[in-house]
Specification:
Strand content: under 5%
CATH superfamily: MFS general substrate transporter like domains
Order of helices and strands: HHHHHHHHHHHHHHHHHHHHH
Number of helices: 21
CATH class: Mainly Alpha
CATH topology: Growth Hormone, Chain: A
Number of strands: 0
Shape: globular
Amino acid sequence: MPTATNSTRKSYVTSMAILALLFFIFGFVTWVNGPLLFYVKLAFHLDTDSKAFMVTFAFYMAYFFLALPSSWILGKTGMKKGMAIGLLVMAIGAFVFGTFATHRNYTLALTGLFIIGSGLSLLQTAVNPYVSIIGPIESAAQRISIMGIFNKAAGIISPIVLSLFVLKGINQFEDRVNAATDPAVKESILNEFASKVYMPYMLMAAILFIFAIWILKSPLPEIKGSEVNKAQEGSAEMSKRSIFQFPHLWLGALCIFVYVGAEVMAGDAIGIYGKGFDIPTDETKYFTSFTLGAMLLGYIAGLISIPKYISQQKGLRISAILGVLFTLGAFFTKGYTSVGFVAALGFANAMMWPAIFPLAIYRLGKFTETGSAILIMGIAGGAIIPRLFASLKETYDFQSVFAYLMIPCYLYILYYSIKGYKAGLSK
């Protein structure tokens, strides 16, 4: 007969496996946005990169608008049902995007991406604190690193899948569109290309729906964040009555904002960055996978080193310094070498989310769910910063714009790793 300890360990391993699968799913859905920029620019015949970057804007702004409502929903449904609802909403969004992208209705296609982001907002508002508090908070970065390995493995795969099934032959389609003089012929070519996204997104919708049902029936236990992530008895945090009394949380939300902005710049914008050196689309469409490959290596490094050799905050400090150095490397080089430095930012970025999130929710107690939602709102940085890049590079040198946006982001993350994470906390 198994002991209680063995039973508890089996439950923990099962839960971690289910969570890893969820991280794989939203990694796949999230990182497909990079090559999707090339798809929408051609399918909707957009004349600027800034218009194409509405893809990331619509997707990531959903986190800003839906994070706090997500915490309210989770308070009513519990984390497990909330995860299932999130997957169901994502399935609806995938169906909407696939349908209206095929009909080349950009507004409604972007609405589909917003719906996917909304489902992910609910899913992430539940999953991230769940992973952080399912074990000791001091080793949360290690657990999130495990999740990150699955997330980034999916991120490596998804651009390749989209490139093979949707973007295959995109250069030839671009040449045919440019060569077409008859508007009707041009529209026919664009319709043919746009329709290639339909089946992949219908399949994605079906898979997400199936996983939503499976999560409901899974053995994943319910966890109450406010009960697990308690403040220490007798500490100053026990007496706090408002979420505004935790400055380390608000500084952490800004840290998430600039981090996700930097992550999306290195992941989704790397293809557009490469196009600045006149690298062909048939090559740049795969560049997101290179960044995600570097991130995967970073997560493995974090899994090995945290907390055994270095603390979460020291890992964050090292990552921020690497971010500055790699950004400077990209700025002072050209062509494939410069793109290589941008991809290397994936390694620097890997340990940031796993460190920032647990540091920012530390000792929130009954405010854990609300605090997690505020941090998830910070993901909107992935909408704002890349869109700024796309707009500014139309007027200024794209390498200069990239560096001037990224270096301040990493310097703020460095500040948070040294001082910001402990602001307002008692010893």
